[in-house]
């Protein structure tokens, strides 16, 4: 028996060092301790919300994009341009924007014709599925067919959180360096689509297109790659055509 | 970083299992962390000490088993461990997008009493 705390320790003797006060000693009670198998993902709560979101999005015939990039890669500018073009073609675009502090992204997006809601994440460096669930409940999903989620600008943790999106879109701007996909393997590996953005200034900044695309292919062989400029609109039609096809095929899938 | 949030999740799961098991102490929490999970084991350790304070898991040992990335090559029909960044099959040099292991981020087991 442990003389200091009275615990019955029969199988092994724990020596409490003299300098250690009793409450600092590490209790190790192998005779009593038992192992509990768990095998549960740390994301299990987020996964549950993501699954729910996905069901709700499907029930509303929504194509949902989760947009990831480093700060300043052009997420908001891209969505603004998409909102205008999609508005001309089909309907209003819903946007959920996550940002560390209040800024005017949501206002910019509304000016572009989107129905936009901002989630101020405070200290959180990524969006989680329950935040999206809450924001989506305020958006009136039934009137939308495209919902774009602008994640917090950071390529690390947003990659780990499924939001229930249809497609994960990772942006790589031409000013960021061609080796970015190698530095953020988790984000790029999880991408369904990689967009090379700010193509209008590619030449001016000496962007090595071949190397960048090779690096993307290497990390995400399955991803579709498009080259766009939100500023000039170059490549936007091809990108939106792809989205329209995806939207139609997701309808077909649901109808099956 | 979001390691604190992750460890809060881990603790919540652990407390839940411990309660179900009528345990009054958690002595060890074992995690499995894949190389592609995007989290730093050191940051997890730091966060662990923070979140377990004042709980029945205070002073518990955090065991982290890291899982290396394992891919599958469809062409060669075999598993392989990528040698460097990227998922290139060492035999046929095609890039694999089928990742069998490396994304794990789970609570494997507990030791309780
Ligand atoms: N030249 C150029 N600049 C762009 C483009 N898209 C965004 N930018 C600029 O890049 C900066 C960051 O854009 P923003 O959309 O706010 O990035 P976010 O932080 O990812 O949302 C702004 O100064 C934009 O004007 C583009 O297609 N071409
Ligand atoms: Mg923005
Ligand atoms: Zn985060
Ligand atoms: Zn092969």
The CATH fourth-level homologous superfamily of chain A? P-loop containing nucleotide triphosphate hydrolases
Number of strands of chain A: 8
Biggest sheet record of chain B: 3 strands, mixed
Net shape of chain A:
globular
Description:
The complex is a heterodimer of chains A (256) and B (113). Chain A is built from eight helices and eight strands; from the N terminus they run βαβαβαβαββααβαβα. Chain A is an alpha/beta fold. Chain A has one domain (43-255): Rossmann fold. A seven-stranded parallel β-sheet of chain A has the order 4-3-5-2-6-7-8, with helices on both faces. The model of chain A is unreliable at 1-25 (pLDDT under 50). Chain B is α+β, with helices and mostly antiparallel strands and 113 residues long. Chain B has a single domain (3-112), classed as hypothetical protein PF0899 fold (2-Layer Sandwich), CATH 3.30.2320.80. In chain B, the strands form two sheets. A three-stranded mixed β-sheet of chain B has the order 2-1-6, covered by helices on one side. A three-stranded antiparallel β-sheet of chain B has the order 4-3-5, with no helix packed on it. In chain B, strand 1 (26-34), helix 2 (41-52) and strand 2 form a beta-alpha-beta unit. The longest helix of chain B has 18 residues, at 3-20. The mean pLDDT of chain B is 92. Classes of the chains: A alpha/beta (256), B alpha+beta (113). Chains A and B meet through strand 1, helix 6 and helix 7 of A and helix 1, strand 1 and strand 6 of B. Strand 1 (34-41) of chain A pairs antiparallel with strand 6 (105-112) of chain B, so a sheet runs across the interface. Bound molecules: guanosine-5'-diphosphate (GDP), magnesium ion and zinc ion (ZN) (2 copies). Residues 124-126, 157 of chain A line the site of one zinc ion.
